[in-house]
Amino acid sequence: MRPLAAVATAVLALAGGVGCAGDDGGPVDRCEATTAAQALTAAERKVVGEASPYPADPLLRARQDELIGSQRARREAAWAAVARVLEPVALAEDLPARDGPETLPRWHTWYAKDDLHRVFQKVWRGLPQDLRLARAPIPGDALDAGFAWNPHAVEELDTWPAERWQGYVDSLDDELDVAGTGGIARVGYDPAAARHVLASYAQEIACFAGDIPEPFVDGAPTSPTTAREPLALGACEEQSFGPYFVATGERLTATAGTTRLEVRRDGIGGEVACETIGEPCAVDGPGALWVRVASIGDPVGGELVVTHTAPDAPWAACLDGRFPADAAIVKADWRRAELGFQVPVHDTSAAALAARLAGDAAWGEGESTADPGPETIYTVRATSGNVYRLSGMHLMTRELDHWLWITLWWSPEPDGDFGADRPAAIDALGGPWGSYKMCAVAAFHEGDPDPGGGYQDDHPELAAALAATHAGEGGPSWCSNPYLELGHGNAATNCVGCHQHGGTQLGSEAILSEATTFPEHGRVQVRNNFPVDYLWSTDRGDQVAAMLRDEVEYWDDVE
Q1: Strands 379-381 and 387-397, how do they pair?
Q2: Per-residue pLDDT at 2 exceeds 70
Q3: Contact 242, 274 (CB under 8 A)
Q4: Angle at Cα 156 formed by Cα 151 and Cα 159, nearest 5°?
Q5: pTM for this prediction
Q6: In this predicted structure, which of 123-132, 145-154, 256-265, 476-485 has the lowest mean pLDDT?
């Protein structure tokens, strides 16, 4: 264990979670004393070196429709992304007390908020005064230089003379110390994501001050779109679809055979703008429109056909455009491993999921607890000397239009249900990585008509678990992490639905509880614009926009 005298002072912050993927949204309404986040110090960054870029699959975007329509294809692509993210990356510094090149998983080299702060501060203070005052775009070479400087920032600190540095490096003498050099940040940004966040400082600050787009933003009409939604209604049942975003001067037309149709504005429970039986229903834009289909006595099959023309709305008005295709972001849940703390164990079998989703859709405290060791759960010793375990991790990659959403969670029985199809490439990494289960989504809706995803023959336990969360083709998708999703309704989430509101200053409490405005526990798309391209941490959690604003305003006062 490294001596405390040889490490930088670190501030330990409780990272209690709220709903919708943890603590990136709003005030903490439920604290978990065993979860934590801690800054990646300048000294640790020198050991780790520059973050390793995420090696995005350039062909994945061409398979977008396939991934939406096939749970098997989606899971295979997600496991491949996980393998790329877990790939060992060598540390930048040699560790005298250890033999051979030491490594971290690729994601554990990524930048945390403290890295962003150091780099932006260095770059901003080095810009000419006229560029700062004009809020001009930061030159690319200046950002390059800032990220290259970051691993050497500790060398400029008077508190880190050569002898202290050498003592610190010599103290890294076991695997937990090595893993701890990556820190226990709650959110990590790969180089492409980190660079885009800093390059977008002016737009983020403006939105943080209140210049946030409304959920529906009108614009020039695009080409007409025809959506075909499968219908499977029992006697006297109804089903809602949408929203469908319609531009000014354009019209939505819905047709569904002999059934009853309603088209509503302002949400599922909003104003009825059209109502017919056995006839098409047409409503003029602009706005977001919902279609409700009801059977009249007898069961209804067939399909709903909706034709509409959407507006060309801005996608990421609070950023300098969308994130690049090689951007990736992780969010981790770290739990204390000492002093008798244990890890909750959550049952994700088909029966347990069906019961949970039929109730309040909360993960709760788990069915039991466990005390796993470093060989079966990723474990680190932080600079504070405390030991933490990685219970769960979200991964979002920009390889798809609406990102690919992947979540991993630890299990003492990792080969059942959502771990049954884990490929050999993950197990070949050794250590604890064979102890995590996984789910993934690629869109707001589920496009696979097969509830079991085609796993009935080779992985029936996985097929049953998938079926337990399947809302039907065209229904909302599902992917939830029992360690990162806390609160009522969060066991029924899908990541993408909640994150669509990133940058809007909405809290997860509203997203999960206001069923009329945010249907299906917030899983359904209700916006046609995404202010920060699905990133929560600009205005909540890390509050990156506030950090950027404070640095800019400080220099405004100085100048």
Answers
A1: antiparallel
A2: no
A3: no
A4: 110
A5: 0.91
A6: 256-265
Q: Is the pLDDT assigned to residue 48 strictly greater than 50?
A: yes
Give per-residue pLDDT as tens, 266-297.
Answer: 777 788 999 999 999 999 999 999 999 998 87
pLDDT over 60 at 47, yes or no: yes
- 196 burial (CB, 10 Å; 0-12 / 13-18 / 19+) is buried
Contacts of 48 (CB under 8 A, 6+ apart): 40, 91, 92, 104, 109, 151, 181, 182
Three-state SS string over 298-345 comes to: CCECCEEEEEECCECCCCCCCCCCCCCCCCEEEEEEEEECCCCCCEEE
Q: What is the pLDDT of residues 352-410, one digit of tens each?
A: 999 999 988 999 999 999 999 999 999 999 988 999 999 999 999 999 999 999 999 99
Q: What is the 3-state secondary structure (H, E, C) of 11-71?
A: CEEECCCECCCECCCCCCCCCCCCEEEECCCHHHHHHHCCCCCCCCCCCCHHHHHHHHHCH
Cα separation, 229 vs 210, whole angstroms: 37
Burial label for 98, CB within 10 Å (0-12, 13-18, 19+), is: middle
| Average pLDDT along the chain | 90
* Cross-strand pairs, 18: 22
Give Cα separations from 78 to 73, 355, 364, 399 (angstroms).
9, 27, 26, 11
Distance CA 169, CA 2 (A): 9
- Beta-carbon-side half-sphere exposure of residue 178 (alpha carbons within 13 Å): 23
Q: Where are the beta strands (DSSP E) in 138-224?
A: 187-189
Which token pair is 228?
A: 């075909």
| Element spanning 105, H or E | strand 103-105
Query: What is the residue whose two structure tokens read 């869109």?
Result: 443
Asked if 552 and 269 count as a contact pair (C-beta separation under 8 A), the reply is no
Asked if 111 and 185 count as a contact pair (C-beta separation under 8 A), the reply is no
Q: How far apart are CA 412 and CA 389, in angstroms?
A: 14
| Predicted local confidence at residue 35, as pLDDT | 58
User: What is the C-alpha to C-alpha distance for residues 422 and 401, in angstroms, rounded to an integer?
Assistant: 25
> Using an 8 Å Cβ cutoff, are 124 and 98 in contact?
no
Q: What is the pLDDT of residues 496-523, one digit of tens each?
A: 999 999 998 887 777 877 777 788 888 9
Residues 431, 518: contact at Cβ < 8 Å?
no
Whether the Cβ atoms of residue 539 and residue 57 lie closer than 8 Å to each other: no
What domains can be seen in the chain, in order of their start residue?
Answer: 1-16+31-54+93-213+535-559 (no CATH), 225-308 (2.60.120.290)
Contact present, 250 and 213 (Cβ < 8 Å): no
Whole-angstrom Cα distance, residue 30 to residue 381?
A: 25
**Sign of torsion over alpha carbons 120, 148, 334, 410:** positive
